[in-house]
């Protein structure tokens, strides 16, 4: 069985089935109780997609794109076990960069809408969105609100800028699922999950939607252009 995302993986774990499964998750799978160890994960294994570890890096990149942004919004899902990790990483980066961070929580579509309204009223200049399965499922809404309220955003997967968001930085989703498929194939050929350590992503990518940058009136700095892996025209 393959479990895509933290809620699916934890649900499979809770059922207590003896069927081995391969997961892709954002939270620390040891901390969440999904596996006892990264190296000897038991009956389940897969890929830990990284979460809050990269929130500080994303905020740094966003400030590089919008250097005049002094008040940065952070959209969190408080039901996610990784929310606190995101907050700490983004808060530390904001402090070191001399930016103010304003946090908004959302657990449903109406709260996402309200969060963007609150950020706009507070005078926020840009937004960092936590990588979370719920926010991924509301990608279209978040991108539309980012545009409507003039809040350029950074996200964790290229699917956001591909659909009109400003930029993303994080592990390659397609490469991560290739790793998951590889583990699935090994198990089908007789390997035991406990002998397959939980993997970390091998490819990270910085993706920028140039059309969206122009819409926001952003001139992409040369340093970020050079560092980018993909420019969507």
What's this model, at a glance?
This protein has two domains: 79 residues, Response regulator (Rossmann fold, 3-Layer(aba) Sandwich); 147 residues, Response regulator (Rossmann fold, 3-Layer(aba) Sandwich).
Can you give a write-up of this model?
The chain is an alpha/beta fold and 233 residues long. The chain has 2 domains: 2-49 and 172-202, Rossmann fold, CATH 3.40.50; 52-170 and 205-232, Response regulator (Rossmann fold, 3-Layer(aba) Sandwich), CATH 3.40.50. Helices cover 42% and strands 20% of the residues. The protein has 10 helices and 10 strands. The strands form 2 sheets. Strands 5-4-6-7-8-9-10 form a 7-stranded mixed sheet, with helices on both faces. The chain is globular.
How many extended strands? Answer: 10
Total helical elements: 10
Kindly provide the radius of gyration, computed on alpha-carbon positions and rounded to a whole number of angstroms: 18 Å
> CATH class of the largest domain, please?
Alpha Beta
CATH architecture of the largest domain: 3-Layer(aba) Sandwich
Query: CATH H-level name of the largest domain... which superfamily?
Result: Response regulator
Defining key terms:
Rossmann fold; 2 domains; 42% helix; three-stranded parallel sheet; seven-stranded mixed sheet
């Amino acid at each position: 069985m393959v479990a895509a995302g933290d809620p699916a993986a934890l649900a499979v774990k809770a059922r207590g089935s003896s069927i081995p499964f391969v997961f892709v998750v954002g939270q620390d799978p040891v901390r969440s109780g999904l596996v006892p160890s990264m190296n000897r994960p038991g009956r389940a294994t897969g890929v830990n997609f990284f979460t809050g570890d990269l929130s500080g890096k994303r905020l740094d990149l966003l400030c590089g794109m919008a250097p005049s942004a002094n008040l940065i919004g952070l959209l969190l899902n408080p039901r996610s076990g990784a929310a606190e990790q995101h907050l700490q990483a983004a808060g530390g980066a904001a402090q070191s960069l001399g930016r103010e961070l304003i946090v908004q929580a959302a657990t449903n579509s109406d709260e996402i809408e309200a969060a963007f309204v609150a950020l706009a009223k507070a005078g926020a200049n840009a937004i960092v969105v936590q990588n979370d399965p719920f926010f991924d499922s509301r990608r279209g809404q978040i991108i539309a609100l980012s545009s409507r309220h003039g809040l350029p955003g950074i996200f964790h997967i290229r699917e956001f800028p591909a659909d009109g968001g400003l930029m993303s930085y994080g592990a390659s989703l397609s490469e991560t699922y290739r790793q998951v498929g590889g583990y699935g194939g090994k198990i089908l050929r007789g390997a035991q999950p406990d002998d397959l350590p939980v993997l970390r992503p091998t490819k990270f990518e910085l993706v920028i939607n140039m059309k969206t940058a122009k819409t926001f009136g952003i001139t992409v700095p040369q340093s970020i252009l050079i560092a980018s892996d993909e420019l969507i025209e």
